[in-house]
Write a structure and sequence with these properties.
It is a single chain. 67% of the residues lie in helices and 10% in strands. The chain is mainly α. The chain has a three-stranded antiparallel sheet with strand order 1-3-2. It starts with 7 loop residues before the first helix and ends with a helix.
Length: 177
Amino acid sequence: MGDTADNDDLSELTLDQQIAVYQREFQDLDPQVEKVVSALSRLNRRMNVAYGRQTAALGISNAEWEVLKVLVLSGAPYRMGPSELAKQLGLTPAAMTHRIDRMTAEGLVTRERDESNRVRVIVELTDEGRSKWLDAMRMATVFEEELLQDLSIGERGLLGDMLTRLLDRVEDLQDRG
């Protein structure tokens, strides 16, 4: 089930306390599975809060960070059509247009007509947008190194491999329907 409680009092429970409550209420629970899933859920939520603080300190939202990331991942010259961006981010065209409008006003991206196809629009990362992306990456690197400081290089590699296997499994299950 994972850790989905929003109540502040409940979020103060340790994982072991939470699992004990779950086992009391649902005897078929596998405590090892629940510990892994709940720990991942809590870790994800807390990391998202930390990253949100970092992007806010840079004057951008997490939503804007996601657009910058997709453009950087597309490779130089960091350009994509709005519909392609929307698909990558799982957004509706209207939501993508709103996000691009805001980011254009902030100088993070430009929106131009494609010279080879005047109907097509191209969104391109600006120097300011790339600078914000780099600053966010620098901040994230410090946080992530601190997060993993108690793990050896070998443990980091093993954890990365195991988490990748879990990710592959969940993506496969989602792709199947």
